[in-house]
Amino acid sequence: MPLEFLRRKGNGTRASKDAPPLPVAPPQPVPEEAVAQDHQLRLNYAAKTSTGVRLQGGPNVLNTLGHMLDGLATSDVEVVPPREATLTVASPQIVHTQEAGEWLRAHGDASPITRHALYVLELLDAIDPAYDTFASALLDGDVDTSGYPEYSSIVGGVAAHWDEATGDLIVRGVVGWGGRGTRGDTDRTANRLLGRLLGNILETSGSLGLTAVDRPGAAPGGPTVMCQHCFYPNVHPRAVYCPKCGMRMIHA
Ligand SMILES: [Zn+2]
Q1: In this structure, which residues have their CB less than 5 angstroms from ion ligand 1?
Q2: Cα 126 to middle of ligand 1, angstroms
Q3: Are residues 9 and 3 in contact, defined by beta-carbon separation less than 8 angstroms?
Q4: Ligand 1 centroid from CA 235, angstroms
């Protein structure tokens, strides 16, 4: 009797022919809509960038970037050079595995604070690590037990690229924050920090004052040339200097 055998095994007790039959629920009508349990996550990231400041170009000017965070950084300052030109599709998007893989090759060894800063600021297009040199630190708030900034902590510093026309260094203040939450006063704190960063940049020796400079490189889809020195592929065809490495372009 296979049915007896199954029943005995199923409920773990010895089934008896005398046991009352289990009540059988009447068949349920098929619902038109499923009863949904909602799952939702709101992530909130924000960034602010200042006007650019023109700094006299030269071999040592990049070394001044870290000092522009003096009095503001509450962690070590890390200076991140632009990404190698071979990492062409790097992007901090984990489901785009090739992009994420390149991004980790470029930035995986950076500190948690720097990685958080790069993640937020690149996601929001506030910096472009393809050509920006970025000096950053924790500027406000705390880190969690793993060393990553809390959502209300502010990270950032200065981002710099070379002016394609003059070879000067263009430096701007950059701050960012965010994650699983928001706080009302973060925006105000970020504005205050950005102002102090801009002040530090302007006080740096070699500062030539505020400047309005468009993003380097040709218009999207327009013709570009490759830098002969660092192989950055996105240089404007009439650029005199490479925005990434600052070397003089050689035009045929
Ligand atoms: Zn270059």
Answers
A1: 227, 229-230, 232, 242, 244-245
A2: 21
A3: no
A4: 8
> One-letter amino acid identity for 116?
H
Ligand 1 centre distance from Cα of residue 247 (Å): 6
What is the whole-number distance in angstroms between the Cα of residue 248 and the centre of ligand 1?
8
- Ligand 1 centroid to residue 131 C-alpha, Å: 9
- What is the distance in A from the centroid of ligand 1 to the CA of 41? 41
CB 170 within 8 A of CB 157: no
From first to last of its 252 residues, the chain has per-residue pLDDT tens of 455 555 545 454 555 567 777 888 888 888 888 889 999 999 999 999 999 999 999 889 999 999 999 999 999 999 999 999 999 999 999 999 999 999 999 999 999 999 999 999 999 999 999 999 999 999 999 999 999 999 999 999 999 999 999 999 999 999 999 999 999 999 999 999 999 999 999 999 999 999 987 788 877 788 999 999 999 999 999 999 999 999 999 987
CA–centroid distance, residue 199 to ligand 1 (Å): 29
Distance 84 CA to ligand 1 centre (A): 10
Amino acid at 214: D
